């Protein structure tokens, strides 16, 4: 029996678990004021992230493509269901080969690197099981085509004369890229593959940076919007290609915080791919590549 596990960062499953979730990510107890600030954000998007529901939908859709030969599940690095727990359950069900697919658009030590470390530890605990890991959707044709389709629909009412596209991804500390992290290169390559299809001006930008005092990647999405405002751009289409599922970074950081800050600009935020059929096909292709 073969199995596929979709691996994601995770999210708190209720308001009361925001503190414990943050503690797992940070490796220490977060200050009460920070927990309260994050809790307020979750309250404004309905009390919890839809990430678990969306990832579950992605897993079910992939199962439909793969058929009865595969078990398909999902797991989180920093919350429940945890990767070791899901792997144990799959082994109990008879899985002899497990393929891991990170639900991250681009490879990074922060995300895919952390997942691989967890999986490496599991290889030592289950030496009889074959583990395979395939990260990165950046060069998958179906992934790129899915974003082209979303943009084609979104851009129909607009003119290149007064409309621009911003492609966003989660910010990272600048030192990570300087140390060889492939995240930025994969992000830029994907942006260029999508953007060249359209006669609209475009920029890439980073969003949702952390609160540490270190230097983060630029430009930030705010910087690009301010620049375009000064140039007379009236409509801004935001395509958050760095996120394969809608959650707090899109639903709050873009839909609420950003739109409130730039209320005089017409900001149209595209949905993440979520369970888009072409994303599921891209995941299916990654499994086929691992199978050889």
Automatic annotation (TrEMBL):
SUPFAM superfamilies: Chelatase. One of its GO terms (cellular component) is cytoplasm. Pfam families: Ferrochelatase. InterPro entries: Ferrochelatase, Ferrochelatase_C, Ferrochelatase_N. Transmembrane segments: none annotated. Pathway: Porphyrin-containing compound metabolism; protoheme biosynthesis. Keywords: Cytoplasm, Heme biosynthesis, Iron, Lyase, Metal-binding, Porphyrin biosynthesis. NCBIfam families: hemH (TIGR00109). It is an enzyme of class 4 (lyase). Its main location: cytoplasm. It comes from Carboxydothermus hydrogenoformans (strain ATCC BAA-161 / DSM 6008 / Z-2901). Belongs to the ferrochelatase family. It is found in: Cytoplasm. Fe-coproporphyrin III binds at residues 41-42, 49, 115. Its EC number is 4.99.1.9. Signal peptide: none annotated. The keyword Iron applies. CDD domains: Ferrochelatase_C, Ferrochelatase_N. One of its GO terms (biological process) is heme biosynthetic process. Involved in coproporphyrin-dependent heme b biosynthesis. Catalyzes the insertion of ferrous iron into coproporphyrin III to form Fe-coproporphyrin III. Fe(2+) binds at residues 170, 249. It comes from the Bacteria. One of its GO terms (molecular function) is metal ion binding. HAMAP family: Ferrochelatase. This is Coproporphyrin III ferrochelatase.
């Amino acid at each position: 029996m073969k199995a596929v596990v979709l691996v994601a960062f995770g999210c708190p499953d209720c308001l009361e678990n925001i503190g414990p979730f943050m503690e797992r990510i940070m490796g220490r107890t977060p200050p009460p004021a920070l927990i309260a600030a994050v809790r307020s954000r979750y309250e404004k998007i309905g009390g919890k992230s839809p990430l678990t529901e969306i990832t579950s939908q992605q897993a079910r859709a992939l199962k439909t493509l793969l058929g009865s030969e595969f078990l398909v599940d999902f797991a989180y690095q920093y919350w429940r269901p945890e990767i070791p727990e899901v792997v144990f359950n799959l082994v109990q069900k008879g899985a002899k080969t497990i393929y891991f697919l990170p639900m991250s658009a681009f490879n990074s030590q922060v995300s895919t690197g952390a997942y691989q470390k967890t999986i490496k530890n599991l290889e030592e605990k289950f030496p009889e099981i074959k583990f395979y890991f395939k990260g990165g959707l950046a060069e998958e044709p179906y992934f790129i085509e899915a974003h082209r389709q979303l943009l084609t629909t979104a851009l129909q009412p607009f003119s290149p004369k007064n409309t621009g596209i911003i492609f966003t991804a989660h910010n990272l500390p600048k030192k990570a890229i300087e140390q060889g992290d492939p995240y930025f290169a994969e992000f830029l390559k994907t942006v260029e593959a999508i953007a060249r299809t359209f006669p609209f001006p475009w920029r890439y930008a980073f969003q949702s940076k952390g609160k540490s005092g270190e230097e983060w990647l630029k430009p930030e999405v705010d910087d690009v919007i301010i620049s375009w405002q000064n140039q007379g751009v009236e409509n801004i289409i935001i395509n958050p290609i760095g996120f394969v599922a809608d959650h707090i970074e899109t639903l709050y950081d873009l839909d609420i915080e950003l739109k409130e800050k730039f209320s005089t600009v017409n900001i149209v935020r595209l949905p993440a791919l979520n369970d888009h059929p072409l994303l599921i096909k891209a995941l299916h292709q990654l499994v086929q590549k691992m199978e050889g």
